[in-house]
Amino acid sequence: MSDTWLIAGLGNPGARYEETRHNIGEMAVQELAHRIGARFASHRTNNQIAEGWERPGGAKLVLAKPHSYMNTSGGPVAAAAKYFNIAPARIIVLHDELDIPFDTVRLKNGGGHGGHNGLRDIAKALNTPDFNRVRIGIGRPPGQMDVANFVLSPFTKTERANLGALIADAADAALEIINNGLTAAQQKFHGRV
Known about the structure:
Blueprint: E1 4-9, H1 24-36, E2 41-43, E3 47-53, E4 60-66, H2 74-83, E5 91-97, E6 105-109, H3 117-126, E7 132-137, H4 147-151, H5 157-180, H6 182-190
Parallel strand pairs: 1-4, 1-5, 5-7
Antiparallel strand pairs: 2-3, 3-4, 6-7
Helix pairs in contact: 1-5, 2-3, 5-6
């Protein structure tokens, strides 16, 4: 299955974290599952897994929501990659990004983790940083607010008004990488104002 992709949406498990900024990657992978009509179920890889095709004749998608907390996402992501025999070049990780303004999506492959412990753990578990990332902007905390408190807090009323569009953009960006490659996807999403 050479045209199979693993798309992992990062977040923290449990109802307490569902609507928080840190879980926006998980929200975006849930959107992809909705689009392809797939349901998540517990899997032996310590993930919730949903499988389906992006479109008839298109790529097979293995969607993953790690059962672990954000900082220990590497084990479940690497286990899913091994189980489904998916190389790092065909892995896309959707995650929150403090250094990008809210309502903005940026794409890259490889590079550092920028202090994001979920990415750090995935790179360590895969033994390479060379996987695709859909970086979903949540912006910086206001004033002197602690970063940990900020990422674990819910979106504001103003942010929630645009949240659906941001999640849709992140899902679109992942599919754009699959269908047209990273460079084309970057040109499409990085050109938006």
